[in-house]
TrEMBL record:
InterPro entries: GLCAT14A/B/C (IPR044610), Glyco_trans_14 (IPR003406). Keywords: Glycoprotein, Glycosyltransferase, Membrane, Transferase, Transmembrane, Transmembrane helix. GO terms for cellular component: membrane. This is Glycosyltransferase family 14 protein. It is a single-pass type II membrane protein. One of its GO terms (molecular function) is glucuronosyltransferase activity. It is found in: Membrane. Pfam families: Branch. The chain crosses the membrane at residues 21-41.
Amino acid sequence: MKKLKTYYSHFRSHNHPPNKWIFPLAVGSVVSIFLIFLTTLTSPTATRSSSPLPVSLLPPPPRFAYLISGSVGDGNMIKRTLLALYHPNNVYVVHLDRASSESERLDLQNFVNGFHLFNKFSNVKMITKANLVTYRGPTMVANTLHAAAVLLREGGDWDWFINLSASDYPLVTQDDLLDAFSYLPRDLNFIDHTSNIGWKEFQRAKPIIIDPGLYMSKKADVFWVTQKRSVPSAFKLFTGSAWMALSRSFIDYCIWGWDNLPRTVLMYYANFLSSPEGYFHTVICNAQEFRNTTVNSDLHFISWDNPPKQHPHYLNLADMQRMVDSNAPFARKFPREDPVLDKIDSELLSRNPGMVTPGGWCIGSRKNGSDPCSVVGNTTVLRPGPGAKRLGSLITSLLSKEKFRPGQCK
Ligand SMILES: *[C@@H]1O[C@H](CO)[C@@H](O)[C@H](O)[C@H]1NC(C)=O
Ligand SMILES: *[C@@H]1O[C@H](CO)[C@@H](O)[C@H](O)[C@H]1NC(C)=O
Ligand SMILES: *[C@@H]1O[C@H](CO)[C@@H](O)[C@H](O)[C@H]1NC(C)=O
Ligand SMILES: *[C@@H]1O[C@H](CO)[C@@H](O)[C@H](O)[C@H]1NC(C)=O
């Protein structure tokens, strides 16, 4: 694909954020260029503009830190999702909860330890001390925070944390995602949220639940306490999707806890039904230093009933076009080994069974179905395809004047 000349200006550094800046986003390397003007994150007006800089000064690709977790029977889907998401410069944590058997966990561990690329780049880790995770309980958030902490400690310098399950799958290649995110300020947080909690006030905020997963050694469902509590007045409740891409700085804030908010809100959510749909949302929107970094999207294609039921539709071949048209980088939920996953592999990811999704770093032959990634080239070279263009239009729309600011913590 023909490389086009792209420009950027005043890319915001982690350490020295200018007070005011203007940010033309150019997702290059695909046939069409699009530009958006994302005005300052921390100040309501942007006044500075600047002259173009040459291509060689384009920001380096970011790095993603992924958690892929699942429960009993999910082992093979975790392997498949991991291969589909793999890139040598990212870091990955996989987790099979304690409801799965010892042998299933061992099988996943052997896969992680034995796959040549994972060995070569040492960037995939399995949490072997498996957690007990209760569906809808706070142990789900604890599991996510656990993985985030492992990634902070052992994952080097990554930029975004993305939490996925075994029933999620990508609709774009990592080269597409890395390319599109190259042009974004690293402190953006993609999190679908609202303070309009509606029916959840009575069904979620007021009831008090206990998750036995916090203190029992065997799995049991959450139970309800007879008393109710009032809606918080010390902070405002937010709710939204349990799927998100969170910035390094926000994960630092949540895990280190130098401000007490993430800790007290976590303790509050210990007794809240479906805490993954509220914990990060409530923390981020009540933290002045982070609320302006929110982008109101979970970056997922999810097919809900109308009105929504507890679970979304399982996706199948009939959903293929709608998935592509959504421009979303991820979709859920997929039944294990559904034929639509094969179609995504061949049409969107160019991925062969048992192999990773090829990218600019793969320089081997593709002849006779051989794996191009068996020969590793320069791992910072990206070869974005049509997925980068789709993702570019999604991001442009999410960061538009109509959607970006007006969608923040309302
Ligand atoms: C966030 O944005 C609002 C409105 O644009 C602004 O008034 C406020 O000062 C910003 N907060 C921070 C911490 O930058
Ligand atoms: C993270 O991933 C798991 C998948 O196992 C999911 O169930 C959970 O709700 C997700 N979100 C959060 C905020 O923990
Ligand atoms: C591909 O397979 C054909 C026949 O199966 C063989 O003749 C050819 O040498 C192979 N090419 C490569 C590059 O391995
Ligand atoms: C790898 O590619 C990057 C960007 O395309 C380039 O700046 C760098 O010099 C290359 N590294 C090597 C070792 O060739």
